[in-house]
């Protein structure tokens, strides 16, 4: 049975090229759930197609190859013949990967033609969601192709009909993967409302399909009784004015907290949890402490103080990245820099490759495992995928300006 080769350096790649087999390189990241699914597809292809080498490259670790092949997103596939790039594939698309890999094995060159694919890999898992640590509930398997619009819409309708309050977000309620998702979670928790959270990072079909279903291009998205309320800005404004609580009372009744809690508990097979007003703590306020020079050993608190100082520095927009804006050291960092420059946003930067204590400490501080990380006045906006999505939707510059203004008048 074929195996997927781990490529950890340019030297490893040269060794694979020396075997004279065409190569499929999968650039992946630990935090990206679609990468895990595509990895299982790649493993099956390695077994079915002995004429090619299937290899994995951890995009945020092997920077030299990420930059060499101009990889700016994951999952991402590069097809090589005699060491030269013959084709590329972006995103989690099992049929396309199967067709291209099969063509590469048969002809020695990947192709975008209608070459008959190998046996289809298993469909992606049903959407998962987490609420208060309860086990996720799976939607009934649709009879149609799981990737079709009808099937995806069916899964969305199932989720919206099964829980009165649903948040489609990046991450889960206990660990939001972007600042916007975190603020919606916080708004609901302050009202003591239990809800179903659906991590759209774990299901690309839901992530793309919900945009069409709702005609709303960004995340998070809050639904009450199957109706879209809106995204982060709308929810936080409604929460501040009292309109969100009024809406919940109108849709769910006076005991809206009990109704929401019972629905979540019923799905998990547990007793309803008591309402809570706790919320995930926001990033600590920036201080005016001068950053200390990196020293070893350095306590966790000392590292946190340096992080607070960096976030509270003269530049309100701060990017923690690999390399510098003039010389990014990874495709993800370069993509964020390009997006900020295109919007005319002035920003400071910090090269985490030059300070291992900050590089590791910021992951814990922000509860965000990867780089780059973009902050506005100490508040995490997100990483490469969020910034580029906001840029594509025309929301990056306006969102940053709104955050700056909101914090100025707070």
From TrEMBL:
GO terms for biological process: intracellular iron ion homeostasis. The keyword Iron-sulfur applies. Residues 103-146, 267-299 are annotated as: Disordered. One of its GO terms (molecular function) is metal ion binding. Residues 103-115, 127-146, 286-297 have a biased composition (Low complexity). Coiled coil: none annotated. The keyword Metal-binding applies. GO terms for cellular component: cytosol; nucleus. InterPro entries: Glutaredoxin, GRX_PICOT-like, Monothiol_GRX-rel, Thioredoxin-like_sf, Thioredoxin_CS, Thioredoxin_domain. Gene3D superfamilies: Glutaredoxin. Residues 1-106 form the Thioredoxin domain. Residues 116-126, 271-285 have a biased composition (Pro residues). Keywords: Iron, Iron-sulfur, Metal-binding. Belongs to the glutaredoxin family. CGFS subfamily. NCBIfam families: Grx4 family monothiol glutaredoxin (TIGR00365). This is Thioredoxin domain-containing protein.
